[in-house]
């Protein structure tokens, strides 16, 4: 317990350093929902503003530079976890794209809801605002017609939905409590960090961060309904934060306690085994994004991105060095053509833009100040 407390304090210190409604007036010229084609040449970021959450749209030029393209009200409120500085939600996946239905899901942590937008190029239209099935939603995962939302407070929970007629329908049989300590402090290191599917979609994974320092794996039946309880793999001292799939049954995972990236295999019984481990030698390694055979981890305390090249199905991780960003490096996304990386930096609410070299190097190409975006988290790129 003392070791977990020291890890939480260390991470806190590092981060401290560092119903259907219309779009808002700023976006009204983009028109109605229509029949969207999905995202194209665009980047969307979430402000998580407690006074009124918004999604800000940017148009991506051929050279990767961004220009503002509209601001959309979610008709919900952002939220702030106690102890957070650079990232108010302390999670990955708070803004999630559903490619099968051309929908964008945005959590409203302060009002316990999720907003559903249709996507057409760099334009959004709000279709629905639905309850999250718990308190303080922080992450959304989608696979085919199944959607799950992770709620962070009151011990944590997941709530499942199905997509019908491009709207979310809550499923009472797909709500599961996580059973975490609801009183563990500080909140931002002791709330769950992400919900996501394994690549082939038969398992749902939740990271608990310092509150158990575990991977929770729910096996799903053929209808997409989760097991009553998860299989727990405890990773002492690791503080698992965020992940991206590696093939059908693997994960690339960030560990905020060890400041490292690790590769895991998730077995059919729900247990997880580490296959590779690579330190960033940075502070508060929390978010991760993948493109081709490259990984980039965000280090909020060091205000850097750490690059890695993967090989042998993720069993080998080769460090490519660290690239500085604006203060408080948080959530990141890669353009659909794989040439550009965009990262939110939460201390001043700045969106940094990088070109990705063939060797994995990152070259700065610009930045944007996100209106009301200090502490904001959640990004999707096309």
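Q: What amino acid sequence fits the structure above?
A:
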């Amino acid at each position: 317990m003392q070791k977990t407390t020291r890890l939480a304090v260390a991470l806190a210190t590092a981060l401290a350093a560092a119903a259907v409604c219309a779009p808002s007036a700023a976006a009204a010229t983009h028109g109605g929902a229509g029949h969207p084609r999905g995202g194209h040449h665009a980047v969307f970021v979430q402000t998580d503003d407690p006074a009124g959450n918004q999604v800000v749209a940017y148009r991506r030029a051929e050279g990767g530079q961004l220009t503002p393209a509209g601001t959309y009200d979610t008709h919900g409120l952002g939220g702030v976890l106690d102890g957070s500085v650079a990232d108010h939600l302390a999670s990955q996946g708070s803004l999630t794209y559903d490619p099968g239905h051309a929908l964008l899901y945005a959590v409203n942590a302060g009002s316990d809801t999720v907003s559903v937008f249709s996507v057409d190029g760099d334009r959004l239209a709000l279709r629905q605002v639905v309850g999250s099935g718990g308190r303080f939603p922080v992450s959304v995962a989608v696979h085919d017609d199944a959607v799950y939302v992770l709620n962070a407070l009151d011990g944590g929970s997941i709530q499942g939905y199905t997509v019908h007629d491009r709207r979310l329908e809550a499923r009472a049989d797909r709500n599961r409590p996580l059973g975490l300590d609801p009183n563990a402090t500080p909140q931002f290191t002791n709330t769950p960090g992400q919900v996501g599917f394994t690549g082939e979609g038969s398992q749902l994974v939740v990271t608990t961060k310092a509150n158990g320092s575990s991977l929770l794996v729910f096996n799903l039946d053929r209808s997409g309904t989760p097991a009553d309880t998860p299989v727990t793999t405890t990773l002492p001292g690791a503080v698992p934060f965020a992940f991206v799939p590696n093939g059908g049954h693997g994960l690339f995972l960030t560990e905020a306690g060890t400041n490292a990236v690790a590769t895991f295999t998730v077995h059919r019984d729900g247990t997880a085994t580490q296959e590779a481990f690579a330190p960033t030698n940075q502070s508060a390694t929390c978010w991760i994004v993948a493109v081709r055979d490259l990984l980039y981890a965000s280090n909020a305390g060091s205000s850097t991105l750490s690059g890695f090249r993967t090989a042998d199905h993720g069993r080998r991780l080769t460090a490519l060095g660290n690239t500085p960003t604006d203060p408080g490096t948080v959530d990141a996304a890669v353009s659909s053509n794989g040439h550009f990386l965009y990262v939110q930096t939460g201390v001043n609410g700045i969106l940094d833009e990088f070109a990705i070299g063939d060797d994995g190097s990152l070259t700065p190409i610009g930045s944007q100040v996100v209106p009301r975006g200090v502490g904001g988290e959640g990004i999707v790129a096309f």
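Q: And what stands out in the fold?
A: Confidence is low (pLDDT under 50) at residues 1-34.
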